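Fold this sequence, please.
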Amino acid sequence: MARRFAIRDRIERLDPVADHEEISRLVATYEFPWDVTQALSFALFRTFAVPSIGRLLHETGEFTARTQKRHDDTVLILDAILEHGLGSSEGRAAIRRMNQMHRAYDIANDDLRYVLATFVVTPVRWIDEFGWRRLTPTEIVAQTTYYRRLGRHMGIRDLPEDYAGFARLLDDYEREHFAFDAGGRAVADATIELFGTIPPNHLLPRPLVTAMLRSLMGPELCRAFGYPEPPVPVQRACRSLIRLRGRLVRWLPPRRRPFRARDLSYVRSYPHGYRVEDLGTFPAGCPVPHGPAAAPAPEVPR
């Protein structure tokens, strides 16, 4: 057990602000790789329930016609930033690619802030409920600092100062904006279909996979998509199984090699490799009319 907590102890000797990138990498690639991957998937999924976001994603056609590729592009871009650092050439290329895609559409700053808040808050809440241990205050400050810095590189304004601020932003925004939209529902349906193809989900009956996913969504998200909630015993059973996994992981030895998203078997769009500069979409035109005010230029990563 002493070895199991060695990385946590190493993290606690670091400075959560000065060393935020190293701590974030240790959390995501050594301590909680599976949990962070699942949590970020659900973070993105939550954004579909905001009509202005879900409708835009549906109008682009990317999340319904090319769901696998959009999933892979998102995972690989975020992974490149985390692995190499925001100031590295690879990290700058990934941020540039992400900003180019976002600037093709008229996305409100409030929506961008909310999306960033889901990436700050959802992993903390997921790990608190399902992880083999809870995140420490050092880890939470480091991850918040990491995403605040990423948000500045994306040109997002008025970012919260701390984790509590991001949590309030997320809860308030969802309370005000979660609502049914046919486009958001279509994007959610396509994403659930993709989840059903991911091992080991592909071995299970599709209704069971759907029931598991809806059990993890919670009532507010189900209502926003117009999904019926699974029976309470099914919800409890699904959550209990994932909590049991966390308890079992607690007794496993720590990872010796870092987890990389590109090694996932279900990242399937680039069997012959890829360049970060070629990931994502390159829209020739924007299906959404732009307003008169242009978004500010993103901060240049340093």
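Residues 215 and 236 are 8 Å apart (CA to CA). The two ends are 39 Å apart (CA to CA).
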